[in-house]
UniProtKB/TrEMBL annotation:
This is Ecto-NOX disulfide-thiol exchanger 2-like. The lineage of its organism: Eukaryota, Metazoa, Chordata, Craniata, Vertebrata. GO terms for cellular component: external side of plasma membrane. The gene is LOC113073166. Residues 8-19 have a biased composition (Acidic residues). InterPro entries: ENOX, ENOX1/2_dom. Residues 155-168 have a biased composition (Polar residues). Residues 142-154 have a biased composition (Basic and acidic residues). Residues 33-129 form the Ecto-NOX disulfide-thiol exchanger 1/2 domain. PANTHER family: ECTO-NOX DISULFIDE-THIOL EXCHANGER, ECTO-NOX DISULFIDE-THIOL EXCHANGER 2. Residues 1-31, 58-79, 133-181 are annotated as: Disordered. It comes from Carassius auratus. GO terms for molecular function: oxidoreductase activity. One of its GO terms (biological process) is ultradian rhythm.
Length: 264
């Protein structure tokens, strides 16, 4: 019995010792959890601060990058506006060149038409000048043939007619001897016809240089003095007028044959 009591006492003592240990273990469990939670909270705070710092850094970097991009955008917009202005200027120049080209084409067509008209008129004048002596020689040849094939009566009549013709020719030659003709050669007569045709196409007149430049296309030996002296010798056919004011004053020759024929 005594042994049992001792054993029970030992067991009770052991139980008493185990009881505070279990209490200590029970008390230390929540504290450890709290400490662990505190540590976890601290680590989370540190992570949050780190994230905040990263966010601030990213914001700063974006803020620095945006002005650079805005500057690049402005420079690109300026370059684009400059290019658009240059393109518009080139388009305007192109339109102006097209208009000038059209005007020159119309002027060229007009000049070519005038040239064709002048050439046709010159050719007709040449044909008339070449046919002029032959037209006068034909009646004389026919008269000679009639004289050869006719009898004496016809010979007398032909002699009478020839005498009348010779008398009429002498009468026609008398004023020519009294008043010498201003046109001295067939070449000058041809020049007068060409110049008259040229000035008739140019009703507002033309300078002596312009007239000579056209005539020199037909004959390079023609000089300005020759043409001017010829024009001055024919005041009833050509007249000189001054056009313009001040520095733009210019001497131009005009065709006045339609007016001059009334005074001759």
């Amino acid at each position: 019995m005594g042994i049992r009591r001792e054993e029970e006492m030992e067991m009770s003592d052991d139980d008493m010792e185990d009881a505070p240990e279990s209490k200590d273990s029970d008390d230390s469990g929540p504290l450890a959890q709290v400490e662990a939670l505190k540590e976890e909270n601290d680590s989370l705070r540190c992570q949050l601060d780190a994230y905040r710092n990263e966010v601030e850094l990213l914001k700063q970097e974006q803020g620095k990058a945006q002005p650079q991009r805005s500057e690049e955008d402005t420079t690109r917009q300026q370059q684009l506006s400059f290019l658009q202005q240059a393109l518009q200027g080139m388009q305007k120049q192109l339109l102006k060149l097209r208009e000038d080209l059209k005007q020159r084409e119309t002027e060229l067509e007009k000049n070519s038409e005038e040239k064709q008209q002048l050439e046709s008129q010159i050719q007709s004048l040449k044909d008339r000048i070449q046919a002029f002596p032959t037209s006068h020689a034909l009646p004389l040849e026919t008269a000679e043939r009639e004289d050869r094939g006719g009898d004496e009566s016809t010979n007398h009549s032909s002699e009478a007619t020839s005498a009348v013709v010779s008398c009429s020719q002498e009468k026609e030659n008398l004023p020519e001897k009294g008043l010498p003709s201003p046109v001295k050669s067939e070449r000058e007569a041809l020049l007068v016809g060409i110049i008259s045709t040229f000035l008739h196409v140019h009703p507002f007149g033309a300078s002596i240089e312009y007239i000579c430049s056209y005539l020199q296309r037909l004959d390079t030996k023609i000089s300005t003095t020759e043409v001017e002296t010829l024009l001055r010798r024919l005041p009833c056919t050509f007249k000189q007028e001054l056009t313009g004011v001040g520095a733009s004053l210019e001497k131009r020759w005009k065709f006045c044959g339609f007016e001059g024929i009334k005074t001759v």
